[in-house]
Amino acid sequence: MARLDVNRSGEMEVFARVFELGGFSAAARALRMTPSAISKLVGRLETRLGARLVNRSTRTLQFTAEGRLFYERSIRLLADMDEVERSVAEAEIPKGKIRVSANIPVGRQLLLPIVPAFLEAYPKLSLEISLTDQVIDLLEQRTDVALRSGPLKSSQLIARKLGAARMIIVGSPGYFARYGIPKTPDELTQHNRLGFSYARAAKGWPLMDKGVLKTIPPSGNIQVSDGDALRALAISGVGLVRLASFIVRDDIVAKRLVPILEKFNPGDIDELHAVYLGQGGLLPIRIRVFLEFLARHIKIGEGRPSREA
């Protein structure tokens, strides 16, 4: 077995340069070494091989049959090594398609805005994005990554937390102008509270009143399947909604929506995760770079709204 401290590929490269340039001095100039260092390296190589590679004279070098054979085999091996390194390097360039699923608000407000920058950073990757509020089976739907908000169910999936946002109750200025602004949790029961058309882990809107946690169920005249639809209904003045703050933050800044009852807010949050199949702990590089990009660029935050009705 070869000794680990012998740089055989390095010796091959030096000897090949000596052979191609016809001398120690020329090879030394090309390799930025001294002629004596080249001579010593060839001498060590000959000793290890037990064969004379070069016949030296004061003016010329003559390569033996063994030296010519060693050169020919060396350049083939060096070419093979270059090919191996090149193929591995090319395999590490992220390329291919990534299939992504996200619920509608997350997709529209967090994922789609960063897609152009991702594709610019990784031009050999493409994305297939499905926006749905249904919880899909990643394996069955051939999906690589799903962005899911809220509590995660126990599964074989691996989850990476991307952030968390406070839950807040909001309504439009037009709605408050017609129906007034609830100042306490009890007054909230007199208002149109819009909710989701599917079962959620949270059965109502939790509010902390005088140290007691109250849960007010959404019992309005409209139920919809996704948070983006609730947001649109709230902006149009149909009723009040309770959503993750990232969904309505731009609307609050633009004064299309106004947060209410913040002093009663218990501070519960809606977490966002990227979930994916572990594949035995090994991930393709295309999935790894996508997850890292999401972690760096998706910004949710848990800050308290600056304006309240």
UniProtKB/TrEMBL annotation:
Keywords: DNA-binding, Transcription, Transcription regulation
Keyword DNA-binding in annotation: yes
Domain of life: Bacteria
Residues of the HTH lysR-type domain: 12-64
Pfam family, one: HTH_1
GO MF term list: DNA-binding transcription factor activity; sequence-specific DNA binding
Entry-linked InterPro entries: LysR-type_TF_proteobact-type, LysR_HTH_N, LysR_subst-bd, WH-like_DNA-bd_sf, WH_DNA-bd_sf
Record has NAD as a keyword: no
GO BP, one annotated term: DNA-templated transcription
Protein purpose: NodD regulates the expression of the nodABCFE genes which encode other nodulation proteins. NodD is also a negative regulator of its own expression. Binds flavonoids as inducers.
Family: Belongs to the LysR transcriptional regulatory family.
Entry protein name: Transcriptional regulator, LysR family
Organism field: Bradyrhizobium erythrophlei
